[in-house]
Amino acid sequence: MQDRDFLDRVKDQLDQIAKARELPETLEADYKEKVTSIDQLKERAATVDRAQPGQNGYSRLQCSLVKSIGPIPIPGVRTFGNLIAIPDFGIVSLAELEVGTEAIGKGFASPKDPGASNYFTLTMLNMQMGCIGGGNVTAARTKSNGNTHP
């Protein structure tokens, strides 16, 4: 999470969604918060001493493997980056990637790293129901800690 080029690309992706016209209010606040979080990670990356791993604390960010979705010919359906807003149904997110670090003992941790372990979570389909049947539906999720085992 110290690669400024990666953080810049993620910020650009999130900015495009946050500034999109007709973005639902619930998403607008969420994506503005994600952009602020990226700015904080960039500031931290600028001051971190790479010789001392784990110094920057635990953090995470979310982005998508999908840049954009073309127009969908269904009345009222709008797309924003990797998001599909379907009236009276909810929001569908495609190929969400979460990258972060976590403390040892909180799941996927490497015995080689005394402070933290990187992890990657890929969710191919995430639906936030915004209709009479509220809730979230997630499909095809995988998590990896990025470490190899002998």
Overall shape: it is globular
* SSE order: HHEEEEEE
Radius of gyration from the CA trace?
Answer: 17 Å
User: Can you give the mean pLDDT?
Assistant: 83
Distance between the termini: 25 Å
Number of domains: 1
Count of DSSP E strands? 6
Number of helices: 2
What layout of secondary structure does this protein have?
Elements: H1 4-18, H2 25-47, E1 60-64, E2 78-80, E3 83-86, E4 90-103, E5 116-129, E6 135-144
Antiparallel strand pairs: 1-4, 2-3, 3-4, 4-5, 5-6
Helix pairs in contact: 1-2
Task: Summarize it.
It is built from 2 helices and 6 strands; from the N terminus they run H-H-E-E-E-E-E-E. It is an alpha+beta fold and 150 residues long.
Short descriptors:
about 25% helix; about 150 residues; globular
Describe the structure.
The protein is α+β, with helices and mostly antiparallel strands. It has one domain (4-144). Helices cover 25% and strands 33% of the residues. It has two helices and six strands. It has helices spanning 4-18, 25-47, and strands at residues 60-64, 78-80, 83-86, 90-103, 116-129, 135-144. Strands 1, 2, 3, 4, 5 and 6 form a six-stranded antiparallel β-sheet that branches. α1 packs antiparallel against α2 (25-47). The longest helix has 23 residues, at 25-47. It is globular and about 50 Å long. The chain starts with a helix and ends in a 6-residue tail after the last strand. The model is unreliable at 108-112 (pLDDT under 50).
